[in-house]
C-alpha cells in the first residue's frame, strides 16, 4: 500500500494474533439452520444429502487450507483443527476465521445443486465462526470427544422425537413422552415401538463425520 498522510488510521487496527504453539480449532456453525432446513424440506431427523453437502464443503476447505489436519462435523456444524505450528496469516484470528467461514459458505452454495438437483436454493445460507486455542493434545482430544458425545445425545433424542411425530403424535406430545428419559429408555422405545435398532443406524448420524489429512 502506498504511503500517504492517511496511513495513521492503520494504528487503530486491533492486534488479534493468537498464541503460538497451540492447536487452533475453528468452529463453523449454521446461522438460523432450523428455519433453513424447514424451508428446504430436509428429512428429519437426518438428511443424508444435507450431511454429505456439509462434508463436501469441509473437504474443499481442507484442500484449500493445508494447515488444517482434521475436521469433525455434525448437524450444521464443523470444527477444523489447525496444527500447532500453523502460521497462516501470522495467526491473526479475524483473518483465519473469516477465511474458513467464507470458504465454507461459498462452497455450500456452489455445491448445492450437486446434492439437491431438484430443490431450488430459496435463499443464501449463512454461517458464523469462532476460534478456540488448546495448548495440549489431551485438551484437543477432549474437545473432539465432547462434540462426538453431543452428537450421540442429540441424535438419539431427535431419532426418538421424529419417530413419535411421524407416527402421529404432535411435537408437544413427543416432547412429553421423552421428558426425563435416559438413553436406555430411548433405545427401548425405538426398538419396541418402531423396530429401530439405534446402534445399526449409520455412524454419520450417531457419531458425526471425521476428515483426516494424510500426507
What does this molecule look like?
With 215 residues, this protein is α+β, with helices and mostly antiparallel strands. It is 47% helix and 15% strand. It is built from seven helices and five strands; from the N terminus they run βααββαβααααβ. The protein has helices spanning 33-39, 48-64, 93-115, 137-166, 171-178, 183-194, 203-207, and strands at 23-30, 68-74, 77-82, 127-134, 209-212. Strands 4-1-3-2-5 form a five-stranded antiparallel sheet, sandwiched between helices. Strand 2 (68-74) and strand 3 (77-82) form a beta hairpin. Helix 2 (48-64) crosses helix 3. The two termini are 37 Å apart.
Concise account of the structure shown:
With 215 residues, the protein is α+β, with helices and mostly antiparallel strands. 47% of the residues lie in helices and 15% in strands. Belongs to the tRNA(His) guanylyltransferase family.
Indicate the topology.
Layout (H helix, E strand, L loop, with lengths): L22 E8 L2 H7 L8 H17 L3 E7 L2 E6 L10 H23 L11 E8 L2 H30 L4 H8 L4 H12 L8 H5 L1 E4 L3
Antiparallel strand pairs: 1-3, 1-4, 2-3, 2-5
Amino acid at each position: 500500500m502506498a504511503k500517504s498522510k492517511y496511513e495513521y488510521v492503520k494504528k487503530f487496527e486491533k492486534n488479534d494474533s493468537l498464541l503460538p504453539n497451540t492447536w487452533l480449532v475453528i468452529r463453523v456453525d449454521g446461522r438460523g439452520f432450523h428455519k433453513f432446513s424447514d424451508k428446504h424440506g430436509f428429512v428429519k431427523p437426518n438428511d443424508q444429502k444435507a450431511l454429505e453437502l456439509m462434508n463436501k464443503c469441509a473437504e474443499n476447505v481442507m484442500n484449500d487450507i493445508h494447515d488444517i489436519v482434521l475436521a469433525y462435523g455434525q448437524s450444521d456444524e464443523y470444527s477444523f483443527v489447525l496444527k500447532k505450528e500453523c502460521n497462516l496469516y501470522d495467526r491473526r484470528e479475524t483473518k483465519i476465521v473469516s477465511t474458513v467461514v467464507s470458504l465454507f459458505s461459498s462452497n455450500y452454495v456452489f455445491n448445492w445443486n450437486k446434492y439437491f438437483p431438484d430443490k431450488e436454493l430459496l435463499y443464501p445460507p449463512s454461517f458464523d465462526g469462532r476460534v478456540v486455542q488448546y495448548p495440549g493434545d489431551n485438551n484437543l482430544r477432549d474437545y473432539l470427544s465432547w462434540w462426538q458425545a453431543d452428537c450421540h445425545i442429540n441424535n438419539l433424542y431427535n431419532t426418538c422425537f421424529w419417530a413419535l411425530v411421524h407416527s402421529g403424535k404432535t411435537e408437544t406430545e413427543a416432547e412429553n413422552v421423552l421428558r426425563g428419559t435416559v438413553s436406555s429408555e430411548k433405545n427401548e422405545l425405538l426398538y419396541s415401538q418402531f423396530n429401530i435398532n439405534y446402534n445399526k443406524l449409520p455412524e454419520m448420524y450417531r457419531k458425526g463425520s471425521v476428515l483426516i489429512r494424510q500426507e
